[in-house]
C-alpha cells in the first residue's frame, strides 16, 4: 500500500511539472491573493536625517537633481544617502572618478556648481577634492546616485570660495559614471 501511495504521488508531481503552454514557460503565475495588489515601482528611499529634499525625479539618472534648502541645523558630521545603488565597481580613496553632480548650499538651496550645466561629467582624483566629497564617494558603486552632505570642517571651512560663503554646509547629488 505504501508503495502505491508513493507511486501515485510521483505520477501527480510529474503530471503537474509537465503542465504548461508547450513553449517552456511553465504554468502561468497564480493570481494575486484577495486584497493584494501588484508590486509598486521602485520609489525614492526614505528620508535620512540631515539630507534635504531633492528636486525632480531623483531616481532618474538621465536627469539632474539637486538638493533644496535644508531644514533646521545642518548635520555636524558627514551624511550620505544612496538614492540609486549602482551595480558597478566601488570607488576607492585613490581612484579618479567621472561624476555628474549638482552642488548646493544647505542653508538656502542655492546651486553653486553643476556638471549637468556644462553638459558633461567631470573627472576628479578623489585625493584632490575636499575631504567630505572624497569620503562621500568612497564605496559608491558605478551607476549609482548618492547625496552627500558635507559639514564645513570637511569642506572649505571658514574660507569663502567663489559663491560658497565661509562656514557653509554643502550638499552634492552625485552620479558615479565611471572609475578611471
UniProtKB/TrEMBL annotation:
* Family statement: Belongs to the FKBP-type PPIase family.
Q: Where is the composition biased (Low complexity)?
A: 33-53
List the EC numbers from the record.
5.2.1.8
Recorded hits in InterPro entries, A to Z, give: PPIase_dom_sf, PPIase_FKBP_dom
Task: Give the source's domain of life in one word.
Answer: Bacteria
Protein name as it appears in the record: Peptidyl-prolyl cis-trans isomerase
The UniProt record lists the keyword Transmembrane:
no
Q: Looking at the record, which segments are called Disordered?
A: 20-79
